[in-house]
Fold this protein.
Amino acid sequence: MGTKSDASRTVPVVEDVGNRREVGPLAQGVIALGTLSAIALAIHQLFNLQVFGIVVLEGRYLYLLAGIFLAIAFLCFRGTPRPRSGVPWWDALLALAAVIGAGYFAWTAELSLEGGWEYAAPETARWMSALMWLLILEATRRAGGTAIFLIVLVFSLYPTFADKMPGPISAFTQPFWDTIPYHIISSESSFGIPMQAFGNLVIGFILFGAVLQRTGGGQFFNDLAFALVGRYRGGAAKVAIFASGFMGSMSGSVISNVLTTGAVSIPAMKRTGFSARYAAATEACASTGGVLMPPIMGATAFVMASFLSRPYVEIALAAAIPSLLYYFGLFAQIDAYAARRGLKGLEPQELPSVAQALRDGWMYLFVFGLLIFLMVALRQVTLAPFYATGLLLLINQTLRRHRFTWRSATALVVAVGRALAELVAVLLGVGLIVGAFSATGLAGTLVNDLIFLAGGSTMMLLFMGALTAFIFGMGMTVTACYIFLAVVLAPALVQAGLNVLAVHLFILYWGMVSYITPPVALGAFAAATLAATSPLKTGLEAMRLGGVIYVAPFFFVLNPALIGEAPALEVIATLVTALIGIWFVSAALQGHVSFVGGFGDDALGWAMRALLFVAGICFAYPGGGGLGLSHWLFSAGGLVLSLAPMLYVRHLGRRRVAPATEGR
């Protein structure tokens, strides 16, 4: 844990893109100083300290953060794939240019606000805007990859040629020297909602996640999961669900989560009888679900809260039921798989005891309790992670095995700076897309066109939306994909009469689908590398294991009771039937009903599995959606359809037990 590479791996990041640079002592010092300065600035701003009477405008605050983290991005990420020792002089020059450019706009923030520079910038501001635009594009390319860079480049220039595009995507045009200052100076583009969410919410939670991991929190929760479920059948895979889900919620990164928790969970699963393909698929699905799981949900949920102008706590509570359904489906499939193949849990001597795990790390539960109390009871979402981080650091100094040395503390700060720089580079780039839609008014045009193409059908519009989200999810990071779809797609779905919060969760879920779905399936492919198995077969297995992620968004967008947007009794009833439905679907996919028995491998067995699958969908389906049937009618139909498969499984189980009993 003491090396620089370890530090960068275990800290929350946006995505692993393979062009990170190992920096020397001097660059480490610069990065650490910049990171500490940015964190101090955030604390000063968010706690409204007004040290020496200084009050920092929000625009000036965001420019300062951007300058610091853009500079760090140029120090941490290579411009070319070819490794090179140290930081070359041109990257140091780019870092300096980022500080100067952002510093100029921070210095003139009040003047530009009063003078309306986003619409009529003076000559110097135009040239500095062009400099910042180029720096943002290059930082986005390094941190986010070529695909997102090209998308951002084209959309950022879209206002300059919008009038030349065909009818559906034609819009108002602006000259280049009006477009670029608008991107940099206005609060609707690079320094709009994405960057505002970062400065006000995300930075604290990224810091908390990093400190929790480096102070032993990650190890504690992993040990606790092993102690609680490791001894049961399929225990190693069930541990992966808990550990990867928790770590994914903190980090918001599927790939880094797979690479860190998977290094422990995948070998444990293989050792207890899981195939390499199944072990890799389990880890990929568990890590993907972590980004959708409260209480933290990575960075994306905070951006969503800013888009919707709703408290983050409401977003987290709404996401709780869909997340429960996803992980319940994953858990049920793993249990059925283990039961069907007679797999056992880990040996007792391999497992820590619950008492020992709690004795070693009870204080981490207290820290999480403080975090949730501040967020839910006191509604201090912005400040909560800083208080929790402070408590963690205080606890850390009392634990000898995790106590920071000068070297480990420096490694932590550098790793945090790298993670924050990566996120800022991507958010600033994606903000250019938001700005392009704002400048041209294209978002409203696209909404009308999508509704027209759907022909007034809500289901058709949802299918079009799901396909769009899946395609863009293949080329963008989670946060970038959500921001793009929130601007382009969400308004059309809301205008069709769907619940606004359900719509935003819908596009978040479908933006995540590509991590376990071939042909891209980055999460599954990363796990396959660790398991030394076929990436494509792992992706196909992950599709089956994570099947809930494909249908749950349709369910909760058609019936908001599944995100808590209904009376309590309706929410409880819908949740109960959904859980029963997912249990049936999971049993059908794996060929075994937990606590009842398995299906046969003949034609009748497969027919019964298909019937149980349909019954599960009927139970889980919330009603409505243009089919004219209520939730209770669907559930009644599911009950009728499930009788034959359940009786078949029970009868088959008795037949298998009878010969063994007679032979005694």
